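Bench notes, afternoon.
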Amino acid sequence: MTRLRHLILALAAMMLALPAAAFDTSARGAYVVDVTTGTVLLNKNADEPLPPASMSKLMTLYVAFEAVRDGRLTLDERLPVSEHAMSYGGSTMFLNTRDRVRVEDLLRGIVVLSGNDACAVIAEALSPDGTEAGFARFMTQRAQAMGLTNSVFQNASGWPAVGHVMSMRDLALLARRLIEDFPEFYPMFKETEFAFDGRAPANTRNRNPLLGLGIGADGLKTGHTSEAGYGLVGSAVQGDRRVIFAITGLETAAERAREAEAIVNWAFRQFAQKSLARAGEVVAWAEVWMGDAPRVGLTPAEDVETLLPVLGGDEVAAQVVHTGPLRAPVRQGDVVAELVLVPEGLPETRVPLVAASDVGPGGFVTRMRTVSGLLLQRLRAGPEGAL
């Protein structure tokens, strides 16, 4: 009998030691997820729409990467710079209206230099009506379609504007989509320097404080305005695990750097990946109503991996949830139940369970036996249970 099956039959088990200490962050909003297992490690106001500052440039980049992939832009294409784009202050590439800039340089200018002007150039090129405002409306629609339900954009750069908001969960989801959907572009995010045309010597360095620390950091984007505070969408890989996080509302760049490094170290050092069940392994049984078999095995369709605190044991509270008995026929592979895992100190995880085999409808004898049993139960229950 496997460890997981034993736990399910018992319905719950206690951790053998102390859980990992929760991370106490001073960020206004924070979200940390282990991508490999899907485990949410930290959630602080993660669904609150907040000013994202330059972190919202990630959505501009996602739309731009889609345009390149679809052939609506090419990396060598040169785009004009409008008066509007040139008018941006803050972090820029110092573009002017005499420039025609390669798309690849604009993308690097956004990723590495956080160029507000580069965002506006890309936005006007891809906007349905040729304006940055039109592009922002398109970005909002695209974000909603991707499941970023707490994101609304007023511009392409994150420049302070009423109603320009994103949640930390949305930013983390967007980061994951960038990593997984555009592996050909993602290496840009760990570039530490981009000296465009030699014209901006004061703005050539990537502001991500985690790059180069030797902790596996490879992206993604910082942000800062007086309204938003200091924030960072980050990701790091160590071994077979990837962690993505989004934080905002910190008071200084130094505090952002310390908090981000501490989050990465905590996520990798305080949790270990464990295998709980393999695909095809029967972990529980469900009764079947009027079937040619009285029950069916329940199995995960994919291997079940989870994170457990390193200070705890290898056991985790687990329970199978389904509405039963199942009604025949049941087809192998049908999702018929959920496995609920509750690691100590972490949010619960729900894993779909499928039928391990077919259960066809029972014959006449089976149906008569089932009906007779039901009638007998009701008769034994007295008048309240009688037909």
